[in-house]
Design brief:
- This protein has helices at residues 13-37, 43-65, 121-124, 148-161, 169-182, 260-264, 267-275, 321-332, 344-347, 381-394; strands at residues 91-97, 102-103, 107-109, 128-130, 133-137, 143-146, 195-204, 216-226, 238-243, 280-284, 292-295, 299-303, 309-311, 337-339, 352-357, 361-369, 374-376, 405-407.
- By secondary structure, it is of the alpha+beta class.
- Strands 1, 2, 3, 4, 5, 6, 7, 8 and 18 form a nine-stranded antiparallel β-sheet that branches.
């Protein structure tokens, strides 16, 4: 304790230095006596210790070469929060190994970067699935997540289709709760219109050369605070264009699972559509180009001339969890619901058309243009009422009859 730099000694400085030198000399001498009397280290153990020492030195060198960690954001004005990347405290990561055929206990990681082998399956063969869900700070001040069981089940269906290790529902829910708890200060306050966007995703993380399943998979959950998708002003309708030169997915393909490649395929068509002034793309079935399927990243739904809620359903359409919740609310309010193949010719006669998803809930489609002409849809009354109904449940303002909302112990 005499040499502890954190202790202020009530002694003259010269005497303090003298005492420190004496203690150091005594400690060194004692250490040498202990080493001289200790048995010699076996050669194999010595080599291992030397290897460990070299590896530790190398690790320190690599750590110094890493970019500075992205510091978590400190949000002071929630009204200015947009829909983009905001640094948070970190993410949750679990690893599955073929050696154990099991998932590990998981880790919370503050570094937003992932270290992967250059031949990882996700980089070459598109072994990736993702989900989108949200957490809300509700009217009673509690934080709740929405309908995680449906997201877990959809990720499992996708994992089976891409021959990836399925994430058990219990682990999925545990990981999401962990990520939300560790980033609780990023859940926007009640009344701000914002939410905590949750992105669970599954990747093939081990190296493979030929096309084959990975021997290791990583399941990660990241979170990002997002503001109201539509901002503070009135909801603006979106102009869509039907893609006649591109297909989104084929029957018996992977269109019905949330695979990353499905979204990459829309980048070029979306670029063309936006260059012509449209806000999104709309795809027809790849077999006949007769039936409507999906918008760029959203399910299509609409209110027909008889007041029914109609949404297309085929084997190449991703089942939207938001769409399923909106259908449940519609049925609860006495609105007939139909899930069926929907011809483009019939859609032209609808009174309301919307695009639904986790980010927007429902966005109004103002017009759809095909190769011949532009068709306009002026209404949004019924779909907006359903949107507000779902948001009321999510924010704890209305009764949750379906058990979608679950509290996170923050």
């Amino acid at each position: 304790p005499v040499c502890d730099p954190h202790i202020v000694l009530p002694l003259p400085s010269a005497r303090s230095e003298m005492l420190c030198r004496h203690v150091r000399r005594t400690a060194v001498a004692a250490g040498r006596r202990a080493l001289s009397s200790a048995p010699p280290i076996p050669p194999n153990e010595l080599r291992l210790l030397q290897q460990v020492s070299r590896l530790e030195s190398r690790v320190h060198e690599l750590e110094e070469a890493l970019p500075a960690r992205v510091q978590p954001a400190r949000i002071t004005n929630w009204d200015e929060l947009g829909f983009g990347i905001t640094p948070t405290n970190g993410h949750v990561r679990y690893t599955w190994s073929a050696k154990t055929s099991a998932w590990d206990a998981g880790r919370f990681i503050t570094d937003p970067y992932i270290n992967l082998h250059v031949h990882a399956g996700v980089l070459h063969y598109g072994m990736t699935l993702f989900e989108g869900c949200k957490a809300f700070r509700c009217k009673d001040g509690k934080v709740r997540v929405c309908n995680l069981g449906a997201n877990a089940a959809r990720l499992q269906r996708g994992a089976n289709r891409l021959v990836m290790a399925p994430v058990p529902s219990k682990l999925f829910v545990e990981a999401v709760h962990w990520a939300v708890r560790a980033n609780a200060e990023y859940v926007p306050p009640y009344g701000s219109g914002g939410s905590l966007y949750i992105r669970p995703f599954l990747i093939g993380s081990s190296p493979v050369l030929g096309l084959q399943p990975c021997s290791e998979f990583s399941f990660l959950v990241s979170v990002i605070p997002v503001g109201n998708y539509f901002g503070k002003g009135p909801i603006q309708g979106i102009d869509a264009k039907i893609m006649t030169e591109f297909d989104r997915a084929a029957p018996k393909g992977t269109g019905d699972v949330k695979a990353g490649g499905n979204y990459a395929a829309d980048l070029l068509p979306l670029k063309h559509a936006k260059s012509e002034g449209y806000g999104t793309t709309l795809y027809l079935d790849s077999s006949e180009h007769k039936y409507v399927e999906e918008f760029s990243v959203s399910n299509l739904l609409g209110i027909d001339k008889d007041g029914k809620y109609v949404t297309p359903r085929t084997s190449s359409i991703l089942p939207s969890i938001t769409n399923e919740m909106l259908m449940a609310i519609a049925e609860d309010r006495g609105i007939p619901v139909e899930q069926r193949p929907l011809e483009w010719g019939e859609l032209k006669t609808f009174s309301e058309v919307g695009a639904c998803g986790t980010a927007t809930v429902v966005a109004p489609i103002r017009s759809i243009t095909d190769v011949e002409r532009k068709y306009e849809f002026g209404g949004f009354e019924t779909l907006n009422q359903l949107r507000e109904g779902l948001q009321s449940v999510q924010h704890g303002e209305a009764e949750d009859k379906w058990g979608w909302m679950v509290e996170v112990a923050c």
